[in-house]
Design a protein that fits this description.
Number of strands: 15
CATH architecture of the largest domain: 3-Layer(aba) Sandwich
CATH topology of the largest domain: Rossmann fold
Radius of gyration: 29 Å
Largest sheet: 5 strands, parallel
Structural class: alpha/beta
Strand order of the largest sheet: 7-6-5-11-12
Shape: globular
Distance between the termini: 32 Å
Helix content: 40-55%
Number of domains: 3
Number of helices: 20
CATH class of the largest domain: Alpha Beta
Length: about 550
RNA sequence: GCGCCAGUAGCUCAGUUGGAUAGAGCAUCGGCCUUCUAAGCCGACGGCCGGGGGUUCGAAUCCUCCCUGGCGCACCA
């Protein structure tokens, strides 16, 4: 935000001059209420103790020192000692040039300073198609990657494939069971198996590929079913994610960790650092020393390693690949797993290197009535079905309009509706409206003005000012979204921006205005359309030119 | 029982690091199309920020104790 940058520099100069130190907790921000001006500063209150003066007296001093600043039109002192600044219109006009010059880079920053970040998300077991809950994690992860890249981080997106554990055996067993049923064999139902129709489909394909499947040795048949099922399902997952516009740079196999002996290596490392020990025939991680409630088993007394063991090895591998920050996006039902994973990272010498984002449940509804979901029972709405029905844009926007750690009601009928219940269209419509204006203007031979004092001076209504001030805030929203890893801030901003555009559209007629005014307005609206598209891009949502 | 998350307008939700009179959309009610897309704009109505206590110039936000809901507490993944 230029306004903030300018003020901060000016205020720091004043403080230096007075011999006061800049208080850590000083805040420069747009006030909630526009009547308090463009920028509000709590500096005087923060300085009271240090300067040994009343806040309002300090505010007077600062105000007097800043009166010569020509970019600032007005300074007020309010309440307990807030300093409220109002900038001159000419200051806001410069925003247009800034946005034009930046182009699609507007909002980019070097906040991340090239920090290497890995974001791991979705990582659903390849035992069935992605459901709507995975979709939320996918939208969040993908958007976060885009936002952090925009903010100057070097980001890689990864999917961890749990292809080594018990779930895979159950998958193999489930397919084999369905194959036997298909052949009319009367076999007992396995204790634990996946019931979805896709299993039957895969079983049918297996029987075609291996007509002698049921005559094989059981273990061999299971293995075949498992491998075929996994790769088949994984391909489906990749297709669904692609259709949802989600990017993963790497697909990391759990099996490869085990095969490379990385898990055993981890045991060795932990023993060496005194964080691992043998007891009751098992190998334990002393996680209680690092904040966990209990120590955790990594190798069971039967010799099998636990999921957690490979997860530690996996995170070790991540850090060894040189990431400064590792972000894991998990379902909120795994929150109990966070302390032990944090402990593990600390034991690996990477305290603070892991950040876990929890994504809460999606309540899928149709017309207000819940749709039950359970992969095991085979009763669920797949991500693909939902995306096919409501569209990827509406789906993503819905997911990204809420904080990730609160539950989300997702009503198919509501998300499909092209109405105000559905903000995605409100935002997209803002973009389409501007495109439509540009088309009409071109037919009339009216062009957007070029940036200059004359054209900018014509942007003189309160609606122009309102728009410019909001546009100036976009880079801050991007930074805040990256810093707090909260894509929903972008969604909030876009709804605000769209609202401001629609208000502008209703109050500042473009094409019927005087020629030079029309051109100046088209110039401003070019900026708006650019920022709308820019922001939607961070959410992975399209900006249509007509609707 | 212990732990994590949540509780803000009738509904769905925002609320930056503690800031000024707690915001937005939907719903309800009332206005606005001979002009650029009415998928829009403007106005009204609507609140014990779950409850009590505390910290301070100032609390929805921090601390503490309760209440309610969700989730988690394996040599499962």
């Amino acid at each position: 935000m230029r306004a903030k940058i300018h003020l901060e520099a000016a205020l720091k100069a004043v403080l230096a001059d007075k011999g006061w130190e800049w208080p850590e907790k000083a805040v420069i921000e747009p006030p909630k209420d526009k009547q308090f001006g463009d920028m509000s500063v709590n500096l005087a209150m923060m300085l009271a103790k240090q300067a040994k003066k009343a806040p309002r007296a300090i505010a007077e001093d600062i105000m007097a020192a800043m009166e010569s600043d020509s970019l600032i039109e007005k300074i007020d002192i309010a309440g307990p000692g807030f300093l409220n600044f109002t900038f001159a219109p000419s200051f806001w006009h410069e925003t247009v040039g800034v946005i034009m010059d930046a182009g699609t880079d507007f909002g980019s920053s070097d906040m991340g300073n090239g920090t290497k970040v890995q974001v791991e998300y979705v990582s659903a077991n390849p035992t069935g198609p992605l459901h709507i809950g995975h979709g939320r994690g996918a939208a969040l992860g993908d958007s976060l990657v885009r936002i952090m890249e925009k903010a100057g981080y070097e980001v890689e997106a990864e999917y961890y494939i749990n292809d080594a554990g018990r779930q895979m055996l159950i998958l193999g067993g489930s397919i084999l069971y369905r194959a036997r049923l298909k052949k009319g064999q009367d076999v007992p139902e396995p204790e634990d198996f996946y019931k979805g129709d896709y299993i039957a489909t895969i079983a049918g394909e297996m029987l075609k590929l291996h007509p002698d499947l049921l005559k094989m040795d059981e273990a061999e048949a299971m293995e075949l079913c498992k491998n075929y099922g996994m790769s088949n399902i994984l391909e489906g997952i990749k297709e669904d994610l692609k259709a949802f516009g989600v990017r993963h740079d790497f697909w990391f196999s759990e099996k490869s960790l085990v095969a490379d002996g990385k898990v055993d290596e981890t045991f060795g490392d932990l023993t060496e650092s005194g964080m691992g020990f043998e007891q009751d025939g098992a190998f334990w991680f002393k996680s209680t020393e690092l904040g966990d409630d209990k120590d955790r088993v990594l190798r069971k007394s039967n010799g099998d390693t636990t999921y957690f063991a490979s997860d530690i090895a996996y995170h070790d591998n991540k850090f060894k690949r040189g990431f400064d920050l590792v972000v894991d996006i998990w379902g909120a039902d795994h929150h109990g797993y966070v302390p032990r994973m944090m402990a593990a990272c600390e034991a690996l010498g990477k305290k603070g290197g892991l950040h876990v984002i929890l994504v809460n449940l999606v309540n899928l509804l149709r017309d207000g009535k819940p749709i039950a979901m359970s992969t095991r029972a085979g009763q669920f709405e797949t991500l693909k079905d939902v995306v096919d029905e409501v569209g990827a844009d509406a789906c993503r926007f819905m997911f990204l309009s809420r904080k990730s750690d609160s539950k989300l009601d997702f009503d198919l009928e509501l998300v499909k509706q092209k109405s105000m219940d559905n903000p995605v269209y409100y935002v997209q419509y803002a973009h389409a409206r501007i495109c439509s204006l540009n088309k009409k203007a071109a037919e009339k031979g009216t062009k957007a003005a070029t940036v200059g004092p004359e054209s900018l001076a014509l942007l003189d209504t309160k609606y122009d000012m309102e728009m410019l001030k909001l546009l100036d805030q976009y880079p801050d929203f991007v930074e805040a979204a990256a810093r707090t890893q909260s894509p929903h801030l972008i969604s909030m901003f876009l709804q605000d921006l769209a609202s401001t555009l629609h208000r502008y559209y209703s109050n500042c007629h473009v094409l019927s205005a005087e020629n030079n005014v029309a051109s100046a307005r088209l110039m401003l609206l070019d900026c708006v359309a650019g920022v709308v598209k820019n922001g939607l891009g961070l959410l992975g949502v399209n900006a249509p030119e007509s609707m």
